[in-house]
Amino acid sequence: MFFYKKNTEVFDNIIRNARKIANENPCGLQTLVYSLIRPLQSEQIIQVCERADHAARSQITSDTFFSDNRDFISFEEKKDLRLDPHSEVVDLSRDAVIPTPWQPLSIAAMFASYGEGRKAGPWRQDNNHSVEFYLPWRIGFVLGGNHSIAAGILRGEGSIKPNYVYDLSEKLRKVKTDGIDFISVESNKIICPAVNQRVAAIWEIGRMMSNVAN
Q: What is the distance between the alpha carbons of residues 119 and 195, in angstroms, rounded to a whole number?
């Protein structure tokens, strides 16, 4: 009988290098997380300039980032993981914030307006800016103000007071991944598939950051 062998080369290589970073300086794991999300962040921003009007990508949300299974982190569970939103400030120059602009005219105006000597001046938080922020990775999911937040990211300036802050350290103690599936630490049973190997690696790096990795 032949068994299908899962190909986890990408996941394995990321985790191998993450362990090297953790051994050298665990603070470097934050930079690794940012570098892994940066390509996705860039794609979500630039796609509005590449696509036809009204054909922008779907927004990336916290509910489906790690798994397409919307019950992976339930609404009730999120309530228990919520922190005081004033406990954190999101830095657009160094935190992994993922906006999804959808209107070409809006993104063009934002790109042209923000910055020293430009019409809108230096980037600043507006009332319509809304972000969910997840620890320990410092990943931000934009709920409102996608266009101007994207401009702030590309300018490398600005900070946001998040609307919601969640610390998933407790969830990380209960769930691990092999690069393909999420697995219960207690029962070793598969919970649901991961979105992809890179995202699975981000989850496992979170376990290292929370000091719960095997």
A: 41
User: Please, what is the end-to-end C-alpha distance for the chain in angstroms?
Assistant: 31
The answer to whether the CB of 185 falls within 8 A of the CB of 154 is no
Mind listing the pLDDT tens digit for each residue in 147-204? Answer: 889 989 988 889 999 999 999 999 999 999 999 999 999 999 999 999 999 999 999 9
Q: Taking residues 22-45, report their average pLDDT.
A: 95
Spatial separation of the C-alpha atoms in residues 73 and 141, rounded to whole Å: 15
β-strand partners of 193: 181
Q: How large is the angle between the packed helices 28-50 and 104-113, nearest 10 degrees?
A: 120
Sequence letter at residue 176: K
Q: Classify residue 18 as left (phi > 0), alpha (psi -120 to 50) or beta.
A: alpha
Distance CA 72, CA 64 (A): 8
Determine the residue type at 169: S
| Cα–Cα nearest to 126, from 94, 101, 161 | 161
- Report the share of the chain in percent with pLDDT over 70: 86
Q: From CA 160, how far away is CA 175, in angstroms rounded?
A: 30
Which runs of consecutive H residues, i.e. helices, occur in 67-196? 75-81, 104-113, 146-155, 169-174
* Cα separation values, 172 from 40, 168, 202, Å: 23, 6, 11
**Token pair 């934050």 is at which residue?**
30
pTM of this structure: 0.88
Classify residue 130 by burial, with Cβ atoms within 10 Å: 0-12, 13-18, 19+. Answer: middle
